Amino acid sequence: MDRMVTLAHKFLEDVLSFGDTAVDLTAGGGRDTLFLAERTGRQGKVFAFDIQREAIVRTQSLLTGKGFRAISHWEEGSILPESGIFLVNDGHERIRSYVREKVKGVIANLGYLPSGDRSIVTRAETTLQSLRETLPLLVSGGRLAVIAYVRHQGGRREAEEISGFFGGLPSNCWHTIKMEMLNRENAPFLLMAEKT
Fold it and tell me: CB atoms < 10 A from the CB of 120, how many?
């Protein structure tokens, strides 16, 4: 798993700069959100989504421990500051209700919250909806990285559908790559897309 996360970060690192806007579609334990915050800096804007309050709390705690301040409560539709980290306790499929600006990098680490309730997992339907909502937000040259897992309940179906989604993106607008371990059964894999 860590290899795929490292590769996803490298893929996004090449395009993210201070002042950019980035999105973590699955806040989880906060590691991806922290990575995005470090890459975009204090002038940047990071949105992190999770339906589990526990994930938002963990992410906020990790960020605070690393010297970042995150906002986790505001009225939907309100005007947010020009920069900052915004933790959204809502489904990633509702990204367009919160993110109105163009985005340079997006990451999603699917499955369940590590050390959390394993019955609460990402689902193919909402993940696909979030990806459809996210793609128009990406700037030209913007990148999307999704780490998919197959071992949890519904994980194989979700991974296959998301892989099909990436494979179906028009080649005149998107460059897509799938990285997987060929000698390890049921290993997570990484899907990456760059908008042309």
Answer: 14
